[in-house]
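Please discuss these two lines.
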Amino acid sequence: MSLDPVLVMKGQDPMPNTCPSTSNGDSKSSWEDSKDIHDNVGSTKKPKSPKPENAVTIAVSSRVLFRTEKEQKVYEQKGIEEYLRYQVEHENEPFAPGPAFPFVKALETVNNRLRELYPDSEELFDIVLVTYNHAHVGVRLINTINYHNLFIERFCMTGGSSPIGYLKAWQTNLYLSADAEKVQEALAEGIAAATMFMAEKQTEVSETQLRVAFDGDAVLFSDESERIFKAHGLDKFFEHERENENTLLDHGPLKSFLEVLGKLQKKFYAKGYRMDCPIRTYLVTARSAASSGIRALKTLRAWGLETDEALFLAGAPKGPMLEKIRPHIYFDDQMFHVEGAAEMGAIAAHVPYGIAQKYPHKKSTNSAK
């Protein structure tokens, strides 16, 4: 199986548990057809957005939050002017949900729980919609957000310019995009980022608990150990890990995101909700527990971090485990594992970081991570 970026993937099923009359510009349903829903949304009092310095800021591209394949084809085949004209003509037709949609809905669920427990706190998820689109497209995006009853007040519409400078100004904690080059640019600036992909089949995810799964090396940790494996093989990797069992691994590009998740989790723990916390995290690694897992666990402990579950698979496929976890998002630096996750219906995101980008994983080779 080979995954393409979100916009050109085919065979995608509709997202579960979403409004049935959504469209991607292909159906005859319109904003007016859903007037009752729209009126109800408009009458709902929305909470205030937290200050960026207090919030956990999640920047999401419109291309991963919504399905925009048809619009992208218009742009590629007919150019920018026809694309803008098309968007204005269809601005009353909401986009269908994309791969980041369940993740964003889960963030809002966590926010609702946090507001119940801490009414005056601004330590909440704050979602910023980031798009290369011209401001003309904003009306359709706002209509779509209201249609799906999403709470997204912050927009960053760059008109074709790079959004990276704005991400830094927003103090972004995580950036999700369909553009691998922009994701790499964000990572180079120290921003946790990943390229999102959507499975051809989609597994239903929890509506009451945010579930985030992380690979280990080159995601939570640096690619130090993976470099040993690539250069010298698996036996040398195991030897290196045993010799360095008490030496902490350096941090990887997604460590900071696990940190902010842990910070919010502790707010629930303080109120007695450890066992039914609405945030759950997972370490899903191809490391072996006895021979190389202890270093990973000691590193997390030294950082003051933890994952709720740790799965050491010793080279076994990750897809079946992710099918059971049903994460809202799974981060891995190797496309081999991202593809395996997608085959099982898991929503996966690629972190283009580390030595694995130079040496793509082959199915016949065991990964050290």
Summary: Residues 248 and 356 are 21 Å apart (CA to CA). The first strand starts at residue 56 and ends at 61.
